[in-house]
Write a structure and sequence with these properties.
138 residues; mainly alpha; single chain; 0% strand; 80% helix
Length: 138
């Protein structure tokens, strides 16, 4: 009955092989990190305060490393070279952020719901980084 769902339609396969589609997907995956890195770079004192608010010290070093990972990891993912390294770095950064900033298990009410949603969105990003690393490794 649903046999047609078991194989990729030719037109989908064609679209997935358009050269710009892969780049656009990688740009979408890294867009929040590029924006975050730029925002932190343009207001470094706020970036330091954010790191310290989540207990990451020294704040200046954590902020600088975060900016480096956001730009460097995104650059690697976008370049198509050492994608595994860029995706891994962004995935690890996201995991740290999840457990430091999105700790929904310590919240209650609407804040718990909001933080849980953000936590699992970040988990989805990590899954995307694993998939993109897998694709470029094979």
């Amino acid at each position: 009955m649903l046999a047609w769902l078991k194989q990729d339609p030719g037109w989908v396969n064609e679209i997935l092989h358009w050269q710009w589609v892969s780049f656009a997907a990688r740009l979408a995956l890294t867009s929040s990190y590029l924006l975050g890195g730029m925002t932190k770079l343009l207001n470094f004192s706020a970036a330091i305060a954010e790191q310290e608010r989540f207990g990451l010290r020294p704040g200046w070093l954590c902020a600088a490393l975060t900016i480096l990972i956001e730009f460097g990891g995104s650059g690697l993912v976008l370049s198509g070279y050492a994608v595994w390294l860029g995706a891994g770095a962004l995935g690890c950064l996201t995991a740290v952020a999840m457990f430091k900033a999105d700790n929904f298990w310590t919240k209650s009410g609407q804040e718990r719901v909001t933080q849980a949603n953000t936590f699992f969105e970040h988990l989805g990003l990590i899954g995307g980084f694993v998939l993109i690393a897998f694709i470029y490794a094979h």
